[in-house]
Design a protein that fits this description.
137 residues, mainly alpha, two-stranded antiparallel ribbon, elongated
């Protein structure tokens, strides 16, 4: 059943929820939040859009296959472990750049790992949601 109110609301809520998920991602390596929670919020935003507008519209809006998000996220998470090994520290020890960026703070391997987890969780959740929607057709 199509609802004009839900469809309109989802178009305005999607960008707001995605911005909030990005905020959770960026504050995650210093405070509660991070890639997992941010990825779940982003997946919930796309799920709301899918419920309101259909799976075809949600897939068009995403512009990336969930499998591609999963593979890029896994690649980033694995790559983030390499710098600590190269400089002779323990596996997955945080390596930070000396510069401090406005709004983000210090950039280091924990942020790269969080971005990888964000993409991985978003891709897996959307793959499950879209697969269940396809099965329902």
């Amino acid at each position: 059943m199509f609802s004009v109110i839900l469809s309109t609301a989802s178009r305005y809520l999607l960008p707001l929820l995605l911005i909030f998920s990005f905020f959770l991602l960026l504050r995650g390596h210093n405070e509660p939040g991070g890639g997992f929670v941010g990825g779940l919020v982003a997946a919930a935003a796309y799920a709301l859009y899918f419920i309101a507008n259909g799976v075809d519209e949600a897939e068009k809006l995403l512009k990336a296959e969930p499998i591609r998000l999963i593979s890029v996220g896994l690649f980033l998470a694995v790559i983030s472990t390499i710098p600590s090994i190269l400089i002779g520290k323990n596996f997955m020890t945080g390596v930070w750049l000396d510069t401090n960026f406005p709004l983000i703070g210090k950039i280091g391997t924990p942020l790269v790992f969080d971005v990888g987890v964000y993409l991985l969780v978003l891709g897996i959740a959307l793959k499950i949601i879209f697969s269940l929607a396809e099965e329902d057709r």
